[in-house]
Amino acid sequence: FHAPTPRNLVRVGRIRGSGSDTSTRSAIAAQIEPLAREQMERATRAYGASSLIALDARIDWAEILVDQHQYGPAIDASRAVLESASDRLGACHHLRMEAMEVLADATHAMGDSGAAAELKLKRIECLRERANAMAIVVAMSDALPILDRGGRWVEGEALAREYVERLNVMGGGHGDILFRAEVWVARFLSLQDELDEAEAMFQSLLNGAEADVTPAPRARLHLFHGSNLRRLGALEEAEAEIQAAPDFMVEFRLG
Length: 255
Hints:
mainly alpha, elongated
């Protein structure tokens, strides 16, 4: 009989946490964090702190720290991976890309959305080199709220439009994913003061929302539309739209 290694236990825990709600994921992370730290320490002792095995284990640990809302240590850990790998690995090595993802999520949570947006954009450019269409659209979806908060609205509009195009090439609807993408196009237009064009798009989305659109993107649509109406000076209508958003909320989290 062989006892499970920390690595296997960490992997099982991360699978259990994948797709869970925030509180469940945080609870699972708290259980497996000591194992992830042990995995990293063992790999460091056996192979050296700069070894690929140790760097991979450090990224795993940093990801778990993010799930526990321990953003400062996660930032330190992911930066250490990037610095250690910078001289030996290519800019788009998968370990660097994973470290960029963790660092972006942690810095965004700490309030530095500008730095997080830059990391998200760099990671998307790396993914383009791999020509993995699904990975790119997932990365685009994850990046859009951070580009919003980080003030990268020009890049956000371009990315949202590309996201829409890629989804159409891949077959269109995909549930409400295309609807979500189009809401982001309108949002970035609004943020750039293209208010009339944004309003026309918001109205089209409001009129064309189908039954399979889930509550969260409906809430986002009303919230973003309310923001655009406020910018247009239609304050009563804006207030009504913003107040409508919670009616659609189930577990709505904006970025």
